[in-house]
Hints:
Chain A is mostly helical. In chain A, 75% of the residues lie in helices and 4% in strands.
Amino acid sequence: MTVAAIFLPLLGAFIAGFFGRWIGDRGAQIVACTGVALAAAFGVTLFVDVALDGHNVTTQLFTWLDAGDLQVQWALRFDTLSATMVAMVTVISTMVHVYSVGYMAHDSSVPRFMAYLSFFTFFMLMLVTADNFLQMFFGWEGVGLCSYLLIGFWYDRPTANAAAIKAFVVNRVGDFGFALGIFAVYALFGSLQFGAVFDAAPNFAHTPFIFLGWQVDALTVTCILLFVGAMGKSAQLGLHTWLPDAMEGPTPVSALIHAATMVTAGVFMVARLSPLFEYAPTALAVVCVIGGSTALFAASIGMAQNDIKRVIAYSTCSQLGYMFFAAGVSAYSAAIFHLMTHAFFKALLFLGAGSVIHAMSGEQDMRKMGGIWRLVPVTYVLMWIGSLALAGIPPFAGYFSKDMILEAAWASGSRVGLYAFWLGIIAAFLTAFYSWRLLFLTFHGKPRADAEVMHHVHESPKVMILPLVVLAAGAIFAGWLGYHDFVGEGRESFWRESILVLPDHASIEAAHHAPAWVGELPFAMGVLGIAVAWIAYIWRPGIPGVVARSLRPLYLFLLNKWYFDELYDALFVRPVMALGVAFWKRGDGAVIDGLGPDGVASVTSRLSVRASRLQTGYLYHYAFVMLIGVVLLVSWYLLRQIGS
Amino acid sequence: MQSWPLLTLVTFLPLAGVLFILVLRGTPADVARNARWAALWTSLVVLALSLVLWADFDPTQADFQFVELASWLPAFHIAYHLGIDGISLFFVLLSTFLTPICIIASWASVTERVKEYMMAFLVLETLMVGMFCALDFVIFYVFFEGVLIPMFLIIGVWGGPRRVYAAFKFFLYTLLGSVLMLLAILAIYYQIGSTDVVEALNRGLPPGLQTWLWLAFFASFAVKVPMWPVHTWLPDAHVEAPTAGSVILAGVLLKMGGYGFIRFSLPLFPIASHDLAPFVFTLSVVAIIYTSLVALAQDDMKKLIAYSSVAHMGFVTMGTFTMTAEGLQGAMVQMLSHGIVSAALFLCVGVVYDRLHTREIARYGGLADTMPKYAAVFMVFMLASVGLPGTSGFVGEFLSLLGAFEVNTWVAFFATTGMILGATYMLYLYRRVIFGVITRADVRAMLDLSWREVAIFAPMIVLVLWMGIYPNSFLKPMQPALAKVMERVQLSLHENAAAKLAER
């Protein structure tokens, strides 16, 4: 069953991809959807069996690598952590598959799209069920590849191509850290097997280690390197630039890959490696600071964006920041809890946005929407549910998980925890603000689209609405249902050994004893954010313009995403291209070839021309040269005689 | 062990094919057709025989197998000595695998002097296989140098517009290095009184001499690999060579340098190898970063892939001189992987070159629309070149970096940036060729892969995935031989250290 849960999507991808021409669009859709739906059925069964009933199981497939002391197996590891992820990934993926049947109906390459989606699901499952660092890296790079393929799905658009390459390359920058981290793990532990490494980790706490000539704490450096990989995949501050651009891909892709599953892989990685991170407190502090900063940073940008998908993208980025700082204060289970609830409501929001875009004939700019809520009532309600969950309003899912994260950050008592807590509180306000800004701009007010577009506004077909309803159910109930097991009283028996928290890092326990205001503050901030959004966009719609004008530099700063793209362009992209040309023309052309082969060749031919000039043919020239020779010889002889 | 002189057969059977083609008579069209078929059948039989080698090869043995020893010039202790171990086995297979592919790839694209062209490739096969099997320095040197001649002709006769410049550059560059190696071989001969490789390996060489000999061999192998800064012959040679010429050049000829390092430099001159490893690391890292950046700036498809070859071979030299089990195996797999992947990438260029007769990247764009099969095939090899896990490229790159990290974190740090740069130039190339919108009528008229082209690429894709997902089929047989190399190195390093201590 474990094998079937993982490999059915691959089979589906294979059939839809290679035989799409024979089985047709409909056939490809059926095959791909069946593959993931079966995988989801197995996934949920496994979740019950493994996580709830406590039967961990690891299926060894076959040996991958055997070199020196390194031995790596292809294996499927099912413990609570991976079973949770498998169930979540397969369920969301199934919803997105079904939704895509409707959303991509008019596209010219349906089989290719379905194949990519299933292919992605396979890699994601390989990632979460990895039993060693290398297989995790396999899934990690594989989902990156699928993300690249799907962002660039409409390959005739230059922006999509650029975004696809950007996503892959920025992720590779993160993977650069990940790879070095893997090398460091191997250098330290002599194994890449999770079991062996985790068992030995306590012995390596406070072990020094030489890295780049510096003597440093081994586990700290290793964990930070690994975290760089997580930052790339989960679009954390500095390596986040690819995520907003990734919205060039079709909307189902944004929902599945760039909201619910792939981008959360970094959080999963930190949770999975908790037995390492727990012994590297400095690394945890770094995770916490980066997470907290990203939560606020991305939310601030989200306020000023006009593209409906980009707002949600920055929101994703911000929510991932929450998950990271939860992990940074050792509240891994809270991070995974939020990961799970977020997967539901964020996929819901994205697919809802897709439904809006579908209704608006492809328009994504919120300034050209407005006043359509009566025309798309179901989508409207669903978007409300998603937003309520995102803003952390009880009893929606986000309330339970986000509250727990903030409480844990506060209760950890560390300085970085408090830093993250306060940034998280501000971000909670911003989150509610931009979510309702989105709702109001999109659905309320006067229609700003032209009559032609407005005429075509329609509710999406059932095949698109049905998955949304399932996701909405998750967005409403997941938090309430999961609270006890994920972060409540039942957490010990639920997570068991799949997550390690040292006794003096028990922030979740402390969070349960946090003062009441800590738990109420995020909710208050959420309500405040909604109120402000209502004032600014419904009650007094002139305010945003005034604010933008009076705080123009700040507004531009946010609108232009803190100028990260421009900065990176100037710092990396252009210098690298210039270096390439310089090395080519100057280095290879002028220096190496000029002094090397071409230089030698031209010197040789010049010398031979000179040498041939000596052969003048005049007897007196030769006689004269001979004479000089004789003189030189005699003088040399005489000098030697005198010298001795 | 076996009654048939299998290695001799594999080595010299292509020459029988050459003889057969030589005596072909008839109208030019007949001769061309018969020459093609004769060459193809010969190379396929050779491939089959080499597969027998693999099947009969005992993967647990570190010693040479299928050994053939016959006296040749007894007065000088020079013998006809062939044999393979886990190191050379796969290079023999690589050569015999790529030759039929080259012949099929040239089926329609070479129309002039077909007979001579096919003969050149078969001669080349003999020389390549012989070089990897040789266990006598003289025989090795003869094959090693001999390879230059058919390659020189292939570039110089069937090449592009600047073929003469490129052919001479290629020839002189590689010859220059080899001359020094000949001197070193003479020195070894005077030292141990024989040119037998096995004997030289067993006897060892005095530490004082090792550095000079190492440098002489290095000059020859570094040019072949090619290492920075003696790599500039490669882009020119690739650009001017016909497609199949590039395939062999990238697929096998570059590996002769890497093979030389593992077969001779490490076990014969372990102390020098150890002392000069930092020098090699520096050149490797420079090669990886420098040529990746240069590749990024290219507007000629073949040149881009040629530069990427230099970067990939940088991982090989780096992995080799880590002298760790992981690094050495990584270097070997990287060579095999590159042998297939870069060969396939050159074939991919050949596919579009055959249709449009230009290698300029800007002339293409949007091929995904009209050539979906081609786009998929190109994608597989592009990803293998990038080193995506699950493809052969990853295994080699990862293992050699893993070895490097154990030895020197700086080297690993800088070399790992190659992962980022490699992705950048390959994706950029792919985007410009495959993605985008078709703007020209002649590009729109291009046909997708023919069945012959599919037949070429299919086995290569299988190999790339096989080496990526289950590389143990390749890692296992090479393990004992590489372990023996390491053992020799460790032993002589210990002895040397002990001797130095004793001197004090």
